[in-house]
Write a structure and sequence with these properties.
The chain is α+β, with helices and mostly antiparallel strands. It contains 15 helices and 17 strands. The protein is rod-shaped and about 195 Å long. The two termini are 78 Å apart.
Length: 544
C-alpha cells in the first residue's frame, strides 16, 4: 500500500511540476516576445526619423548584429541593406510587410525557417517619400528556448524529483503508518482517521462473529476428538486422494500405526486388496464394506464417501471388532448342534427301552432293568434341560434377586449333598478356611460350588481328596484327580466341551457344569483362574 501511495503521489507531483514548467516557459516566451517586438518598433521609428533627415548616410553609419535594416523603394527595389549587397537582393514588392506598409503606413510579418527552429520578425514603416524602411530580427522558437534551458531545467527537474520523492515518501508513511499500527484485535480502541471508524466497527463485529464461530468449531472439534478417542471402533478419515487426515487411537491399534501416518496414503498402512476394493466401491458408489482378520481378530470395515455440493471430498472408514460376535455365532451354532445331539441320545435310549417293553419281548425278570434304564436316561434328560435353561438365563442377563450368602455354610451344604457320590468314589471332601459372605444369587453360588466339587469328585482317583478353601475372599476347589492337559485348559469352560468324552459319558455329566460356573462367576463380576497338571490334580480359584 505504501508503494502505491508513493507512486501515485510522486506521479501527481511530477505531472504538476512539468505542467507548471511548461506554463511558465509559455508565459515567459510570450512576454519576452511582446517586449522584443515593442523594442523593434521603437528602433524602427528612430531609424525612420534618422533616414528622413540624413538619408542613406544615416543607414550606413548604423552597425548592429541584433537587427537588420532594409530600405525599399516604392516599386519594391532594394535601395540599401545593412547585411547584404542591395543589388544582389530580389525585388521586395511581394513581401507582405512591404505591401501592408505601402497601403497603411506600417506592416508586420512573421516567417519561420524550414527547420522551425527560428523565426524572423519583420516590422516595416512607410517614409514620407513613399519608400519603406524595414527592420527584422531573428527569434529563437519555443523549442530552441527549451533546448537552451535544458540544463537549468534539468537541474530543476532533478531537484524537484528528489523533493517530490521525499515528499511522496513522507506523505505515504504519514498516511500508512496509522493503518499499519492499527490494533485489529481491539478495533474500537484505535485513534485513527474518522473515515476508518465504520470499517473498524465492521471489523470488530466480524471479530466477534469469528470468535463465536471459532468457539463453536473448537467445541465441536473437542467433542469429536473426545468421542473418537473413546470409541472402541477404529475411525479413519481420508481425503479424495486416499491420504489419511485423521485416525483415532483405536484405528492406530488396529492398523499398528501412529501419528506419523497422517498425510500419507492409507494403502501404506494396509495393503489388503479387500480393503482397496471396498474403498474404491465407497469412492465410486458411496458405500463399501468388507471383513478382514488382523492379528487374530476379525474386523468389519464399513466405508462411506464424503461429498459436498456434489463434489467428492474424501471417505470415512469405520473398523468394528466382530471377533466376539463371530465367536458367539460360532458358539451358538455349536451349542445348537450339541443340544440337539445331547437331547437325542437319552431320548433314543428311552424310546428304545420303551419299544422293547411295549413289544413284550422283554423277559419279566429284565423289565426292572429296562425301567431303571428309562428312569436314568429321563433323569439325565431333565438335568440337561435344567442346565440349558440356566445357561440361557445367564446369557440373557436376567436380573435375579441378590442377598448376603455365607459361602462357608454353603460349602458345607454342598459337601453334605455330594458325600454319597464321594464315598462311592472313595474320595474325601474337606472344607477349610475362615469363610466369608458374598452379596449374590444364592442359587448361582450353589451351582458354582456344586459343579466344581462334583467335577472334582467325578474326575478324581481312588483314595483321592477334594479340598474347599475359603479365605481372603477367595474360593478354591482343589483335587488330586487326573488333571487337565494344557491344550484343553482354555476350552474346558465351553459348552458341551469334554476332555475325555468316554469318561464324561460314564460319569453322567451334561458337559455344561463348568460353563454354568463360568457364567455364574461373570454374573457376580468375579475373576476365575485354573491350574492343572495331568496326573496331579486341578485347582480352580474364584476371586470375589
Amino acid at each position: 500500500m505504501t508503494s502505491k501511495i508513493f507512486r501515485s503521489t510522486f506521479f501527481v507531483v511530477i505531472v504538476i511540476l512539468l505542467c507548471a514548467i511548461g506554463i511558465i516557459l509559455g508565459v515567459l516566451y510570450g512576454y519576452f516576445d511582446d517586449v522584443q517586438i515593442g523594442q523593434l518598433k521603437d528602433e524602427l521609428r528612430l531609424a525612420a526619423i534618422g533616414t528622413e533627415e540624413s538619408g542613406l548616410s544615416f543607414l550606413k553609419r548604423i552597425e548592429s548584429d541584433h537587427f537588420r535594416l532594409t530600405w525599399v523603394a516604392a516599386d519594391g527595389t532594394v535601395i540599401y541593406d545593412t547585411h547584404k549587397d542591395a543589388s544582389a537582393l530580389d525585388n521586395h514588392a511581394d513581401r507582405e510587410e512591404i505591401q501592408e506598409a505601402l497601403q497603411t503606413g506600417s506592416g508586420e510579418d512573421f516567417r519561420h525557417s524550414n527547420t522551425l527552429l527560428e523565426r524572423t520578425v519583420y516590422e516595416a514603416k512607410r517614409l514620407s517619400d513613399g519608400s519603406v524602411l524595414r527592420i527584422s530580427v531573428s527569434q529563437k522558437t519555443m523549442m530552441i528556448l527549451v533546448v537552451g534551458m535544458l540544463h537549468p531545467v534539468s537541474i530543476v527537474i532533478v531537484i524537484a524529483i528528489a523533493l517530490s520523492a521525499l515528499l511522496a515518501k513522507r506523505m505515504a508513511n504519514k498516511i500508512v503508518d496509522p493503518l499499519n499500527n492499527l490494533n485489529l484485535e481491539q478495533p474500537l480502541a484505535n485513534d485513527t482517521y474518522e473515515e476508518l471508524v465504520p470499517l473498524l466497527r465492521r471489523i470488530n463485529q466480524q471479530h466477534r462473529q469469528i470468535e463465536d464461530q471459532m468457539r463453536k468449531l473448537q467445541r465441536k472439534t473437542d467433542e469429536f476428538q473426545q468421542i473418537t478417542s473413546n470409541m472402541q471402533e477404529g475411525l479413519v478419515v481420508l481425503d479424495k486422494e486416499t491420504n489419511i487426515r485423521s485416525m483415532n487411537s483405536a484405528a492406530q491399534k488396529i492398523f499398528s500405526a501412529d501419528e506419523s501416518c497422517l498425510g500419507k496414503s492409507f494403502f501404506m498402512v494396509n495393503r489388503s486388496s479387500l480393503l482397496r476394493t471396498a474403498l474404491n466401491d465407497a469412492l465410486d458408489h458411496g458405500h463399501g464394506s468388507t471383513q478382514l482378520e488382523l492379528r487374530g481378530k476379525a474386523y468389519r470395515f464399513d466405508m462411506s464417501c464424503i461429498r459436498s455440493d456434489g463434489n467428492l471430498l474424501g471417505a470415512v472408514i469405520l473398523a468394528v471388532d466382530v471377533t466376539e460376535s463371530r465367536n458367539a455365532e460360532q458358539l451358538r451354532r455349536e451349542f445348537s448342534a450339541n443340544v440337539s445331539h445331547e437331547l437325542k441320545t437319552p431320548l433314543q435310549g428311552i424310546i428304545g427301552s420303551a419299544e422293547l417293553l411295549e413289544s413284550g419281548i422283554v423277559k419279566p425278570e429284565d423289565e426292572k432293568r429296562f425301567v431303571g434304564h428309562i428312569r436314568k436316561e429321563a433323569s439325565r434328560l431333565v438335568n440337561l434341560i435344567e442346565d440349558i435353561i440356566r445357561i440361557s438365563q445367564l446369557d440373557e442377563g436376567v436380573q435375579l434377586p441378590m442377598e448376603e450368602v455365607d459361602l462357608l455354610g454353603l460349602a458345607e451344604e454342598v459337601k453334605t449333598i455330594l458325600e454319597p457320590s464321594a464315598r462311592e468314589k472313595n474320595v474325601s471332601v474337606e472344607v477349610c478356611g475362615n469363610g466369608f459372605s458374598v452379596l449374590g444369587v444364592r442359587r448361582l453360588l450353589y451351582e458354582i460350588l456344586y459343579n466344581l466339587c462334583d467335577n472334582a469328585i467325578k474326575y478324581n482317583v481312588p483314595d483321592g481328596s477334594v479340598r474347599i478353601l475359603l479365605e481372603d475372599r477367595k474360593l478354591t476347589v482343589k483335587d488330586t484327580g487326573i488333571g487337565i492337559p494344557a491344550k484343553h485348559q482354555k476350552r474346558v469352560f465351553e459348552r458341551f466341551y469334554r476332555v475325555d468324552k468316554s469318561h464324561s459319558k460314564a460319569s453322567g455329566g451334561t458337559g455344561l457344569g463348568l460353563s454354568i460356573v463360568k457364567h455364574a462367576v461373570a454374573y457376580h463380576k468375579a475373576a476365575m483362574s485354573l491350574e492343572s497338571v495331568p496326573g496331579q490334580g486341578t485347582a480352580i480359584t474364584i476371586q470375589f
